[in-house]
Amino acid sequence: MTEKRTYSKNRQQTTTVIAPNEFGKLPPQALELEEAVLGAIMLETDAYSLVSEILRPECFYKIAHQKIFTAIQTLAIQQQPVDMHTVTDQLRKSGTIDDAGGAYYITLLTAKVNSAAHLEYHSRIIVQKYLARELIRVSSEIQTKAFDDKTDVDDLMQEAEGMLFEISQRNLKKDVVQIDSVIEEARNRMLQAAKSQGASGVPSGFHALDKITSGWQKSDLIIIAARPAMGKTAFILSMAKNMAVDFNSPVGVFSLEMSNVQLVNRLIMNVCQIEGEKIKNGQLNDYEWENFDRDITKLMGSPVYIDDTPSLSVFELRTKARRLVKEHKVRCIVIDYLQLMNATGMSFGSREQEVSIISRSLKGLAKELDIPIIALSQLNRGVEGRTGAEGKRPQLSDLRESGAIEQDADMVVFIHRPEYYKITEDTQGNSLIGIAEIIVAKHRNGKTDDIRLKFKGVYAKFMNLDDENSDDDNANFSAYHTISSKMNDSHSFNNVGQSRSDAPPF
After folding, report:
1. Which residues, 6+ apart, have CB-to-CB distance to 186 below 8 Å?
2. DSSP string for 11-72
3. First and final C-alpha spacing in the chain
4. Which of 130, 143, 243, 395 has its CA 20 to 30 A from that of 151?
5. Which long-range contacts (CB under 8 A, 24 or more apart) does 110-113 make?
6. What is the pLDDT of residues 307-362, one digit of tens each?
7. Under 8 Å between Cβ of 274 and 290
8. Beta-bridge partners for 289
């Protein structure tokens, strides 16, 4: 007689049943290996510790074997010995001895095994069979819902993505490695950093920041956070331009808030130093068109890859990021911004739990692809409620829906523009007009510090302080040319005379 199988979902039993005759053959299973593994665990003293991180009760096909493994887990948690007698006793205490086949069946399991020599290998086969059954279950559910005319296809696709993502997360296992190979890898990275004059990671192009970070490091999750109007998007686009144009490092930009054209317009403002309003209305004078035609060539052919999929899920991001790294050798991925992502297909008690899953997934993706992932994040309104110059500086506790974000991030960087809060001088009397403070608030593998950059809101551009003079010269010459060619145009004259600090922030 064939046993009907009740599958588990989210580690809880469900009523979804796949009968053998639905597909014309039995679902993937390895009953003999299940018996061998359970027998070996009860036979060898330390056998359970070898498979405790590999197997879970639902990995077993036969329900009796699930009950037995659950009893073994319970004994291990209680730090009790695991053998034929203790397992039988635990099954009696839990009232599942009959479901497990009785005491005689437990005895038979230990009699079939001579040793635990291949325990781990057999356990991994059991897990593979379980994952195959889970894929069959998911595809069966999706197929049934797809035939229902009342089902919204977009919702169904999102649900399918979430279910597949959950299965893939269960299979993210990595074996331990002996330290020698890791030491060799660390040494190679040090040699590479020495050749790059200290920049072992991907340079941001901001000299003072790169001195702190040595460039954005592989496998790091970097959170860049700020209140609205501080210039988050301008900062990451200035950085993406530096990476791709100045250092020829391929970068992928996932924009959940802006379309790809809007994002490119920001890049044009940055590189060609043309005001955003003029890009929108196309009212450029001859000199600005000359600037545009000359400077736009810097962006043409640059290794910047933009994806503007709205409400991107972590599952979609993972798939696209893998492709970018494989096909375009992308060295860094930027996400604008984290709170607009979702973990569709999975249920959560709160938005904070969902953001927690997203941040944990981003960290896992950075490790898997071995590249830095930079995610923008919003800050809560706590900053606005505080008074004084120091009160307006963001803190780690200001991270919106934080919790796991702060915990998962290798670095947390804040963008703070005192000028926005009408603070025009620091405590030493230095001008803060057009100045942005980049606050490294958390640095898992280095020091924390503050640096200053020049911010030109009219061009949505962050620059090094030592780059300021040359850019101002260009801007002044452009302004002079505009005034000379349109002396009678009062509107143009007012635009030129407008203070840079009064320009709308980006």
Report:
1. none
2. TEEEEEE--GGGTTSPPS--HHHHHHHHHHHHHSTTHHHHHTTT--GGG-SSHHHHHHHHHH
3. 69
4. 130
5. 110/39, 110/42, 110/43, 110/84, 111/39, 112/35, 112/36, 112/39, 113/36, 113/39, 113/40, 113/43
6. 888 878 787 788 888 889 888 999 999 998 788 887 765 556 677 777 788 888 88
7. no
8. none
